[in-house]
Structures are given as structure tokens and as C-alpha cells.
Amino acid sequence: MTANTNDAPVEGVSPTPVKDRVVIFDTTMRDGEQAPGASMSLEEKLELAKILEDMGVDVIEAGFPIASNGDFESVRRVAEIVTESTVCGLARASAADIERAGEAVRPAKRGRIHTFISTSPSHRDHILRMTPEEVIEQITGSVTLARNLCGDVEWSAQDATRTERDVLRRCVEAAIRAGAGTINVPDTVGYSYPTEYGEIFRDLIENVPGADGVIFSAHCHNDLGLAVANSLAAVEAGARQVECAVNGLGERAGNAALEEIVMALRVRGDRLLFDTRIDTQQITRASRYVSAITGFPVQFNKAIVGKNAFAHESGIHQDGMLKDRGTYEIMQPTDVGQGGTNLVMGKHSGRHAFREKLKGFGYELGANALNDAFTRFKELADKKKDVYDDDIIALVDDALARGAERISVKRLRVVAGTDGPQQAELTVTIDGAERSATATGDGPVDAVFNAIRLVVPHTAALRLFQVHAVTEGTDAQAQVSVRLEDGGHIATGLAADTDTLVASAKAYVNALNSLITRQEKTRPPVAQASGF
Ligand code: KIV
Ligand code: ZN
After folding, report:
1. How far apart, in whole angstroms, are the C-alpha atoms of residue 76 and residue 79?
2. What is the pLDDT of residue 11?
3. Predicted pLDDT of residue 268
4. Which of 41, 72, 91, 127 is least crowded, fewest Cβ atoms below 10 Å from its Cβ?
């Protein structure tokens, strides 16, 4: 990469001030999951937590424990397995919420309770029906209770950017007095403007008693496409924590994108003298995983992680790049773990090389999982002329998504073409016993899904069917996402195969397996409960 990220002074150049560090707080599993349809299973959250921890994320907000038993369990299990990052659970300003969050993060080596209340006139009048004084009383009560349960407490002023400044200052002061160590100032509705957002932080940091003893945090939504710019403005103004989500996942237009914040800080270290602990080479893997488990595609021209983020098509650009990469490239694909489409391995490659390759992508598989993945790699290399990095990543993600499934696809034969009806003959195993059916449909995919409905009768409705080619060429693997919904429970299935129909069948069955094991998951009520 072109930016100097080394803190050591360069001879003959005025010394670079030592970099301060920005805490990266990832909320993909909490605010990210609040995006309609972005629900993740417990297993997916545990895998994502490991990816985030490996990547160097400082704080993982793993869920909203009071929201459902499923959310509670996710936060608790993440707290049990993560040792390097702080694990955080969200709570409204009510005793029940805070106690549940405290219980969920208790197993964590480093746990945090994140409690919030709305402070703006709009939310006070229409949601809370409270005066500013009543809100302040709630803040004191909630933060005090949280501090009694956990040494690390973050407090958030929901809709802070639309709050009268004097009220916001008093709320922040109350939270600091009650023991909050991190003060989050969310732009909940994505309304703020960079200079304005920065000014709010300057004001709070300069004028609130005790502000110098806490960390200020930015939390920006992207309704006007300003989430990343606002977050960086907050850092310039003194914020030392940024809340963000992989791929910018989140409510409505999403949260600030983790990858964009991290790379802006890294590449423009000359301008913003703050770095993060993130191992940037793991960014692409995290992005792909989040996209795969949510079924939310990453737009081609998305900064940092889009398929075209490093593609140079025009002749002028290509010519410049051949002469010097720096002419049109401010960072290299490898800086963010995009291996491009290098031809990596073939059918003669050995297990050792395969394991080393996986390590390079950040996967440390146990012996059984490695054997399984290696066998599948060999099968793929037999079918496909060229095996690329992306093929191997898709194959391993597919194996991880599969896990220990009760239902699995054993055999599939499909008749397709111009003369319908298309027909699928399917055999699955359910808890080891085979079951077969033949079905027709309006197209081959419909026939396959109808056959699954015959062998495993169920009421779930199909909400998403999405296919994308992992690499280029007609022999590319298809990666398929299927989302099913049953009685408000949502599950996303994922599969990759060189045969699109086989991948479709496996993805559907994968979603069904998740639904079967999925714990009950409901959304919290809109109104904020009060316990003080
Ligand atoms: O956007 C927001 O205000 C939030 C809070 C709950 C932190 O997500
Ligand atoms: Zn939010």
C-alpha cells in the first residue's frame, strides 16, 4: 500500500506524530441483523464472531439479549468463545433489559453492557413520553445498575444528533457520573452532516464535566450516504471509538461500513493520525461471509470489497497501471485480502499446500473438516479446469455452512429444456434414512424445490433465491443463497457447486436444517420499557 503506516520517523522528513488508536466496535450481529431479512443463525454468529476476533475487532456487539431467547443465547455463546475482543450486549434503560444483558455477557473474558435511551424531543414525546428530567433520571438509574453488573458500560443517546444541545450535554454528564466508560453519540436516523457531527463531539468533549475520562464513540446510519464521512469527522473531533458493520449492513440504508472506516484510516494515515488494530487482509473474507449468510449481495462497485473495487477497465488506466500501480491505485487488492483471480491450485496439489492456502485465507480447520474440504477440493479440481482462490473460499464456506445437518441431498437428476414441464428426481437422507420423490415445476429450480417439499413436507415460504457465479467462465461454481420463512422465523441457506441446480437444492435444504434447529427469535417492542 502507498500510505506510510509506520510510526517511525523518516530521515529528512518532519516526524509523524505517534498514532493514536481508534477502537473498532462491530455491530454486524446487532444493528446489522436489524436489516430486514438479515437474520443469522446461532452457528453463523459464532463463526462470524471468530472471524471478527481474528480480524482484530476490539468490541463485538453480539446481540440484544432481552429481544429473544435466541439473541440471549447468541450473546452468551459468543461471550464464551471469544477471548481477544470485548463482547457486548445491548439493553434499553430498563432493569430487565440490563440484567439480561449482564447475564449474557457474564462468561466473557471482557464483557460490556451497552445501554441506551432516546434523548431527542421527537423520541421523548412520541416514544418515551418523558421530560428531559425524567430521561436523565433513567440514565442515572440504568447506568448505575449496569455498572453494578459489569465493569465496562457504554451508554448511548439514541437520536443524539436531533437532540437539543443543552439536553444532550446534561444526559452525557449524567451517564459519565453514573459510571459509563464509553459515551456513544448516534446519528440514529442518518441525518447529520460531517462538520455538524464533528462539532457535536467537540462541544461535548470540551464542555461536559468528566468528558476527558471517557471514550467518545461515533455510530452513524447511512440514510444520506454520509455514515462513513460522519464517523471520520467524529474521529477528527475527538471520538476514539467507531461503531460500524461489515458491508455497511444495518437498519434502512445501513450502518457505517467497517471496511471503509478501517481503510480510510489506514490509507490516509497522513491526514488522520489514528490507526486501528484490524488485520486488513481479513476484510474480504469477513465481507464474503456476511454476504453469504445474510444473502445480501455486495454491490460490484462497493468501496474496498466490491468485485470491481480494484478492476481497471479503461485503456488509459490499464496503461498507467502497467507503468506504475500508484498511478491509479491508492491501495492494493492484497491489502484487503482480495487475492484477485489467481490460478492457485490444481488436482495434483497436496493436502499440505491446501492447508497452507486455507491458513492464508484465515481458515484454521480441524482434522476432519480439513479432510472433508480437501476431498471436495479434489472433486472440484476434477470437474473444473481452473481452481481459483475464490473457488476454494466458496467451497470451505459451503462445508462450514453444512455442519452437522439432519437432512442432506444425496442424489438429484433434473430434466430441463424448452419442452416443459421440467422435472426433478431427488433423494435426500433424513437422520440417515433415504427418501425420494419426483416433482415437476415451472422451470428446473421450481421442480427441485417442489421435490424437496414432497420429501420433507413443511410450511416455510421461500423469501429469497439468489445465485452468483464465484468466478468467471461457464464452469464456474454457482453460490446459491435461499431464505425461508416460517411463522416469523427466518433462515438463510447457502451452498456452492459447479451445478447450479445441485447448489440450489443444497442451499434450500441448508435453510430447512437451520429452521429446524433455530431457536425462537422475535423482535423487541418499539416502545422502550422502563424499570426505574
Ligand atoms: O442507531 C442507534 O441509535 C442505535 C442505538 C441503539 C445505539 O443503534
Ligand atoms: Zn444504530
Report:
1. 5
2. 42
3. 95
4. 127
Task: Show the ligand 1 pocket: residues with CB < 6 angstroms.
Answer: 31, 116, 156, 158, 184, 186, 188, 219, 221
Q: Which residues of 320-341 are buried (b: 16+ CB within 10 A; e: fewer)?
A: beeeeeeeebebeeebbbbbee
Q: Which amino acid is at 172?
A: V
- Residues of the chain with pLDDT below 50 are 1-16, 340-343, 519-532
pTM, rounded to two decimals: 0.81
Per the CATH hierarchy, to which homologous superfamily does domain 22-294 belong?
A: Aldolase class I (3.20.20.70)
pLDDT digits (tens, 9 = 90+) for 13-52: 444 455 689 999 999 999 999 998 788 888 889 999 999 9
292, HSE (Cβ side, Cα atoms, 13 Å): 31
DSSP-derived 3-state class of residue 388: strand
d(CA 171, CA 167): 6
SS3 262: helix
Decide: 48 and 292 in contact? Cβ < 8 Å.
Answer: no
Give CA–CA dist 99/73, Å, rounded.
Answer: 14
CB neighbours of 97 closer than 8 A, spacing ≥ 6? 65, 66, 91, 115, 529, 531
258-276 as b/e: b if 16+ CB within 10 A: bbbbbbbbbbebeebbbbb
CATH of domain 401-521: 3.30.160.270
- Integer-rounded Cα radius of gyration of the chain: 25
Atom number, ligand 1, closest to the C-alpha of residue 27: 8
The strand pair at 86-92 and 111-118 is best described as: parallel
CB-based contacts of 436-441 (< 8 A; 24+ apart in sequence): 436/411
Dist. CA 322–CA 286, nearest whole Å: 30
DSSP states along 110-157: SEEEEEEEE-SHHHIIIII---HHHHHHHHHHHHHHHHHH-S-EEEEE
Interstrand relation of 86-92 and 20-21 (parallel, antiparallel or unpaired): unpaired
Residue of 142, 155, 156, 251 to mutate, ligand 1, most atoms within 8 A of C-beta: 156
Strand partners, 12: none
The ligand 1 atom at the shortest distance from the C-alpha of residue 30 is 8
211 three-state secondary structure: helix
Ligand 1 center to residue 105 CA distance, Å? 19
Give the integer Cα–Cα distance in Å for 512 and 506. Answer: 10
Tell me how many helices (H) and strands (E) the chain has.
Answer: 16, 18
**How far from the centroid of its chain's Cα atoms is residue 359's Cα?**
21
Number of Cβ within a 10 Å radius of residue 464? 17
